[in-house]
Amino acid sequence: MTAEVLNTLVVLGHRLLLVEVGGGFETHLCEATSDSAARAALDTRRALPDSLADALERGGDDDRLDALLDRLLDTAWKPTTLCGRAWDEMAAGEAGTFRRWQEIELTPTCRSCLRVVDTWFPRSGSLPGIGVLVSVIGEKVEAFGSAWVTGVPGEFLEDLRKAIRKHLRQKGWRSQTMVGSGVLHVMSADALEAIEPTVRAVWIDQAIRRMGVVEQPTDDEAIVDRPRLGVAWQTWVLDE
Predict the structure, then answer these.
(1) Which residue would you say has higher pLDDT here, 99 or 141?
(2) Which of 78, 126, 185, 219 is most open to solvent, judged by the fewest CB atoms within 10 Å of its CB?
(3) What are phi and psi of 200, to 5 degrees?
(4) CA angle 214-147-83, nearest 5°?
(5) Which of 28, 2, 26 lies closest to 17 in space, CA to CA?
(6) Spatial distance between the Cα atoms of 91 and 37, rounded to a whole number of angstroms
(7) Residue 20 near residue 27 (C-beta atoms within 8 A)
(8) 37 with 79: CB under 8 angstroms?
(9) Which pLDDT value is given to residue 58?
(10) Percent helix, strand and coil across the chain, each rounded to 5?
(11) pLDDT per residue over 208-232, tens digit each?
């Protein structure tokens, strides 16, 4: 076990502990506090982790082990995550797993916790072209039910997501946005449902043919290629 036993990170002066919550696979965040309701990184109602218990049983550098235990059992953390859930224990970090069923988790994955972290950053100003970009994305979603945006700087992601959802809501469509591998995806089941059924049928038939499920069409069977759904940030937005 390394000297750094706490699985932590610091964001804009906020010291955060990566933690596990029962009933889900996400890794959450909780913040350090000096409040009287603070709790320890480990669940003090449970037995010590096997790795620590074995080390204590073997003996050795008592001062070092005591220091590790002090850090793990120090009541320094809020009892709820940034997204408001009670948590079980610290997630295993670079020091290794301390419960048999654990896997090492070095990155928070709870979207709600990360959205709270986003609010700590300074709000970005509006850039020329943002309105045009939102309009272009809206046209793509209207035509195809979904779209994606590449190259969006991190500080503008949340503002762009809100602007897109507002734009589509004004058209009467509910929508969802998500970010994966640096790409912002926009989806609207309402917009997809509004597309002409025969057009959607062609898309489905085309996808099946491309997977080789059915024979390729003959020359007299036309296939309509679905236009690209991607939109590039740098094409529409001028960085000042």
Answers:
(1) 141
(2) 219
(3) -65, -35
(4) 115
(5) 28
(6) 20
(7) yes
(8) yes
(9) 52
(10) 35, 20, 45
(11) 776 765 555 554 444 444 456 788 9
**13-37 burial by CB neighbour count: b if 16+ within 10 A, else e?**
eeebbbbbbeeeebbbbbbbeeeee
Kindly write down the DSSP assignment for every residue of 10-44, as one continuous string: EETTEEEEEEE-TT---EEEEEB--STT-B-SS-T
Q: pLDDT tens across 141-192, in order?
A: 988 889 999 998 887 888 899 999 999 999 999 999 998 878 899 999 999 8
Model confidence pTM above 0.85: no
Rounded to whole angstroms, the Cα distance separating 138 from 167 reads: 7
Q: Hunting for tokens 């236009």 — which residue is that? A: 227
**Of 176, 170, 181, the residue nearest 135 (C-alpha):** 170
